[in-house]
């Protein structure tokens, strides 16, 4: 479980700070005109924050399960983090907040 959490942390860092935007589903296949209409830095920040949040929940679950000697807690936090994190990521990153309106900027 710690390995998955570390993977999410690394993924969040390389998407946001390594600017590896091609790792975000759908962005890589967009035409250049569509990519220009998206605040990719804002979307990358959402990805980083969501990945860090899911990793934090998993790490807390791991240590809580170890402390209480109950492995079920580890599984619950793993699936809980994913079931909360993925929909949050999808809804937030596809919101109008990150769409650039060219007409307003002209």
When the domains are counted, the total is: 1
Give the CA-CA distance, first to last residue.
Answer: 49 Å
Q: Helix count?
A: 5
Radius of gyration: 17 Å
Q: Report the sheet with the most strands, covering strand number, pairing sense and barrel closure.
A: none
Strand content: under 5%
Number of strands: 0
As a percent range, the share of helical residues equals: over 70%
**Which residue ranges are poorly predicted, with pLDDT under 50 across at least 5 consecutive positions?**
none
Question: How would you describe what is shown here?
Answer:
The protein has 106 residues and is an all-alpha fold. The chain has one domain. It is 71% helix and 0% strand. The protein has helices spanning 2-16, 32-35, 40-68, 71-93, 102-105. The model has no long low-confidence stretch (mean pLDDT 86).
How is this fold's topology laid out?
Blueprint: H1 2-16, H2 32-35, H3 40-68, H4 71-93, H5 102-105
Helix pairs in contact: 1-3, 3-4
């Amino acid at each position: 479980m710690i390995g998955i959490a570390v993977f999410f942390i690394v993924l969040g860092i390389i998407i946001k700070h390594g600017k590896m935007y091609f790792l975000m589903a759908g962005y890589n296949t967009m035409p250049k005109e569509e990519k220009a209409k998206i605040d990719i830095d804002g979307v990358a920040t959402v990805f980083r924050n969501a990945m860090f949040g899911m990793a934090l929940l998993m790490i807390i679950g791991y240590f809580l399960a170890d402390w209480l000697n109950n492995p079920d807690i580890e599984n619950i936090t793993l699936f809980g983090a994913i079931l909360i994190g993925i929909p949050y990521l999808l809804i937030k990153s596809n919101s109008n907040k990150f769409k650039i309106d060219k007409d307003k900027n002209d």
